Amino acid sequence: MKSLREHEKILPPAEIERRSFEIIEQELPHTLDPLQAPVIKRVIHTTADFSYVDSLCFSQGVIESARQAIREGSSIITDTNMVKAGINGERLSVYGGKVHCFMADEDVAVQARARGITRAAVSMEKSAMMGENYIYAIGNAPTALFRLYDLIAEEKVFPRLIIGVPVGFVHVVEAKELIMQAPVPYIVARGRKGGSNVAAAICNALLYGME
Amino acid sequence: MKSLREHEKILPPAEIERRSFEIIEQELPHTLDPLQAPVIKRVIHTTADFSYVDSLCFSQGVIESARQAIREGSSIITDTNMVKAGINGERLSVYGGKVHCFMADEDVAVQARARGITRAAVSMEKSAMMGENYIYAIGNAPTALFRLYDLIAEEKVFPRLIIGVPVGFVHVVEAKELIMQAPVPYIVARGRKGGSNVAAAICNALLYGME
User: How far apart are CA B174 and CA B182, in angstroms?
Assistant: First the structure.
């Protein structure tokens, strides 16, 4: 066994984060758009996966408009309790926003079972009945994106931002391509990769970059 | 815009999962150990990242001993509320176990600040005072693994399993190599990659594979 002394050189928490971002910057394959850079770098910080440098897609002006939405008190709807747990809710609440996840709600489960659709799709419908224009952070369910696409077309939701980063092998790639055609601001991880951790990291990067 | 009809061919939830695992099996670069396979495949399902096929390391007999621990009512200690949110707590509770995360506890924050160490390290010390032999699911903080290594050497904790899958650029690789030298059962994602989602997926794969 190694000597226990060896890991006494551990850096303090803030220094670990600073040094991590330094390493990420050194290893970036090319320079980034300065507005998008904090989002991309925080996703890499969360995944250790540099493929996000090229898979993350941003609609025109999305960083500014997303921060404006947060500043105006927008709340965030997520498709998993993991995304909800990962977002810095305290920082969001400074502006008046909250994080909601309807996935474990009894009414959502009942409807999903009755109609043979996902709880994620029903959750999006539930958000449409709340009468607010939300930020959507979707890290898991492509069906949430499909349902949002329809709800936008039907003018039942008016998202301030859609973070479309579900992960997976079935319907995921198509759902992300589709949502980029909707007339709303988006940040999407093209391809199969993404996840709850990625969705939360994007929200936090937007929050941490605000004055 | 695409026709809204196009995504009416969406598969029902159970079918999406079945089909996903089918695709994962088809794309595996080589055959897997049959006991480890469900864990590896669920991690890929959660990340869409096939590099875990070769980065996940298992101590001898860990799958059987981990399931035995769950069967005996072991609880799980996590280093983030995201891991806690991702574990199927209902399934765990069938055997009597619970999921604990001390990261947001006031006493943990106070001690961490006073001593200039991470809350994750203090959380591990807190678990040592609870008088139970836990499963540890570490998806974020290498300092949790460093502290666990010492607590094991000092015979203050006797983990039934350590899931060591923090992600990151500083101390992460070393912390994972170190914990594999401790005399306890482990599942570790070698290298930089991992995360809360990976930690939760490993717990769930262990749970879902139990009779």
Answer: 13
